[in-house]
Amino acid sequence: MIWIATLYAVAIAGVIAFQIALIAGAPWGHLTQGGQVQGALPRSGRVIAVVSIPINLCMALAIISAAGFWPNWPVWTSWFAVVLHGVVAVLNCITPSRAERRLWAPVTLIILLCAVLIVLVPL
To answer: What residues form the membrane-spanning segments (predicted)?
Structure first.
């Protein structure tokens, strides 16, 4: 279980690092938010990236808690995180942006699979 939780944490850290890069002006608009922007995101897109960071952190803490690590959050939070990961995975699989789909569909599906395994498999 530790390796699944580690894979999950590394993947989420990568997602958060990507969001930080977008906020800083990385020219990756085609890889996020529907792929409608070429180059750096406009201010509104960067605000979305800022908002996504605490959401991802909370989901990560809920799943890591379910894996038996700190913090000791209520069980419902991990299920809520799994549902949100599922929504994100679906959205990344159906995005009109081919580049976004090719990058994020596999990543978010792996994150979802890890989260499901962590929540379903007893410690």
So the answer is: 6-26, 47-70, 76-94, 103-121
Structural domains in the chain (count): 1
User: Helices 43-66 and 2-23 sit at what angle, rounded to 10 degrees?
Assistant: 170
Q: Return d(Cα 109, Cα 86) in angstroms, integer.
A: 8
Cβ atoms of residues 1 and 12 within 8 Å: no
Beta strands in the chain (DSSP E): none
Sequence-distant (≥ 6) Cβ neighbours of residue 19 within 8 angstroms: 49, 50, 52, 53, 56
Residues 111 and 60: their CA atoms lie apart, in Å, by: 10
User: What domain range is 42 assigned to?
Assistant: 2-120
Q: What's the pTM value of the predicted model, to 2 decimals?
A: 0.92
* Both structure tokens of 117: 């395994």
For the stretch 40-88, pLDDT in tens is: 999 999 999 999 999 999 999 999 999 988 778 899 999 999 999 999 9
